[in-house]
Amino acid sequence: MPLQKNQIITLSIERLSGDGSGVGHWEGEAVFVPGTAPGDVIRARIVKDCKRYAFGIVESIETASPDRIPVECPVAGPCGGCSLRHLSYQAELKAKEASVADAFRRIGGLDVPIQPILPSPEVDRYRNKVQYPVGRDKNGHLCIGFYAGRSHRIVPCEDCKLQPSVLNEIGRTLCSLLEQYGIQPYDEETGKGLVRHIFLRRGTHSGQIMVCLVCTRPKLPHADEMVERLCSQFADIATILINVNREKTNVILGLENHVLYGPGYIEDTLCQVPVQLGPLSFYQVNTPGAEQLYAVAAAYASPTPEDLLLDLYCGMGTIGLSMAGRCRELIGVEIIPEAIESAKTNAARMGAAIAAKSRFFCGDAGEAASRLAAEGLAPDIIVVDPPRKGCDQATLSAIVQMSPRRLVYVSCNPATAARDAAILAESGYQVEKVQPVDMFPRTGHVEAVIQLSKGEFTLKKVRIPFSLEGVDLSKLKKGATYQEIKDYVKEQTGLNVTPLYIAQVKQKCGIIERECYNKPKSENSKQPQCPPEKEKAIRDALKHFHMI
Ligand code: SAH
């Protein structure tokens, strides 16, 4: 008999789900109840039944888990940000480690050793970024806080324990300045009002703070007075901006920024990689936690000075750049153009030697990796750090085709990591180690780093000369691969053309940025030159593929 809405059942909580809810079973059906702890026995009220699983809320706690601790936040329940604030940190770690192990066993079907989880260096106030929605409290005063779970109702919060105290203090000060100057908060229903969010960032190592007001218009009344008041009170504020978001949308940030004070970005370091952070940069929110995560990734990758490292989903390049000093060459791929620009800037700031060996391309990981694989790129090590949905099939196939000696998978979702690891395992990669890492204490999220190595039965790789320029990543969606061009020429003219000839013609046509970068200069003069009839055939192919 299926569970009914509002039915009250007694439930023993066995484990935590990925989002931090407790999970128990009722006649074989999994029931998810937020705010519970493994070891609790509760009376739960069913709020929704989805046949094979159901959702409930706590009606009463019959036996409290010994792992429960007092909740030291007045808004923990309604706010929903800290789904595990009622659990001791030790128990939280144990539950997270178990959830990673469970994913690899149950979803991946893999029997692999799971290392003991690495705790976050900081358990409270570890975040370097906060985005407070601005609204009105029940007395009509301006307030900042967080959205209640699955809603856009603001739960006012004066001192969030996940944020550094100074960010909470700046948020409160700015909120009272806005009220003082009669500035209207944005109303989602009517679309009226000016200020939507207060977005703050703090460089953990530099201490520099960015203040960004997300507004519906670029013009903020009394901006100069507010800038002055904020800067005189908070010496670490390095920049103040307005981000304009005019749309009726749940997306917090718009694309337009106006600098009111300072350079428009803050500086920090991550694993000694210098970074510049503006409002739109993706940056790990727990800096010491990320440094620990990347240290594991580097240990698992263990690059040598001979190695070519491919960093897929590289964001602003920090993982790859943190290892660049130890490898021959680094290639990063990322879909967000601004992140790629940041990666290039970060590499340049690391000095000429690192900049010269690092290249970053904007594109979809699957498309870029397929193209790189088709062109014969043979990275020794690949690092992937995909979003929660994991890697797509194209990316996984290309990885297998490129056949790196070692693959390091950095994951923010053990379920998709386990799924992808199983696919790679079927293709000859052995899952060597899985290291759970906690970067988000008090929440259900857990990261993991997975080390995969080539199985013994696969052939030893032969390094072939390879020109990235030929890959033409800037035209990922439009360009054809060397193989496609070669096949087309053969089909149309019966001529055989080599990748070298294609590269030479592409270069003449201005669609290759510079000389083949991984060949010694002296070799270039000895290269055979493409004969005129083949050049014409290749040009026709490039036209056919809309590349010129
Ligand atoms: N490695 C980086 C970023 C990891 S987050 C770091 O540690 O900072 C995942 C990244 O994947 C984001 O930067 C996101 O923009 C990027 N991304 C998402 N989908 C992608 C895709 N299809 N192809 C390439 N990059 C993608």
Folded structure, characterized:
The chain has 548 residues and is an alpha/beta fold. The protein has four domains: 1-68, OB fold (Dihydrolipoamide Acetyltransferase, E2P) (Beta Barrel); 129-277, OB fold (Dihydrolipoamide Acetyltransferase, E2P), CATH 2.40.50.1070; 287-476, Vaccinia Virus protein VP39 (Rossmann fold, 3-Layer(aba) Sandwich), CATH 3.40.50; 482-544, no CATH class. It is 30% helix and 25% strand. The protein is built from 15 helices and 22 strands. It has helices spanning 76-79, 89-107, 165-180, 223-233, 287-301, 318-324, 337-349, 352-357, 365-374, 393-402, 414-426, 482-493, 499-508, 521-524, 532-544; strands at residues 8-12, 15-16, 22-26, 29-33, 41-49, 53-63, 129-136, 142-147, 154-156, 195-202, 209-215, 237-244, 256-261, 266-270, 273-277, 308-312, 329-334, 358-362, 381-384, 406-411, 429-437, 447-454. The strands form four sheets. The chain has a seven-stranded mixed sheet with strand order 9-8-7-10-11-12-13. A hairpin with a 2-residue loop joins strand 3 and strand 4. Helix 13 packs across helix 15 (532-544). The longest helix is centred in the N-terminal third of the chain and has 19 residues, at 89-107. The site of S-adenosyl-L-homocysteine has 16 residues, from helix 6 and strand 17. S-adenosyl-L-homocysteine binds at residues 282, 284, 313-315, 318-319, 333-336, 339, 364-365, 385, 387.
